[in-house]
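Thread: "does anyone have the structure for this chain?"

Original post by V.I.:
We have the sequence but no experimental structure in hand. Need at least a predicted one for the grant figures.
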Amino acid sequence: MKAVLVVLCACVVMLGSPVFGQDKDAADAKRAEKAMQVAKAWFESLMRGETAVTTSLSAVPFAWDRVKVIESLGELESMYEAVVAEKGKRAIKPTAVKVATDEKKADGAKPVDRIVVHVMIGDEAIAVCVRPGDAYKVVGFSD
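Reply from O.Q.:
Generated one for you, tokens below.
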């Protein structure tokens, strides 16, 4: 009984310790870094007109600029191709890429197991929604 009480007390002390949450903080930072890398690669490949690469970094269902939900990768690639055909290949590079804080998520929405990344071009931002997992994939955007 005394041993159980000692173990319980040790657990309570650990839970209150600042070191206890460090593993979660490190995991969150790793998830954020991966999400930012994928969002940046997605944006840059689209700007270069590399629609096959952009599609490979995406997953469906895909939320297209709060206007449409795309259900197939074929349709998504066609949408990317239409953007490139309309706007051309562009040499636009992000000035910053950062994970949105809760206060900055659009309309107070908090996607479940999604990471919202702001790809900044000057003072303009494109919100890119990334689904974490074995392979991080872009599942929507809004500009």
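V.I.: this helps a lot. The first strand starts at residue 58 and ends at 64.
O.Q.: and Confidence is low (pLDDT under 50) at residues 1-20.
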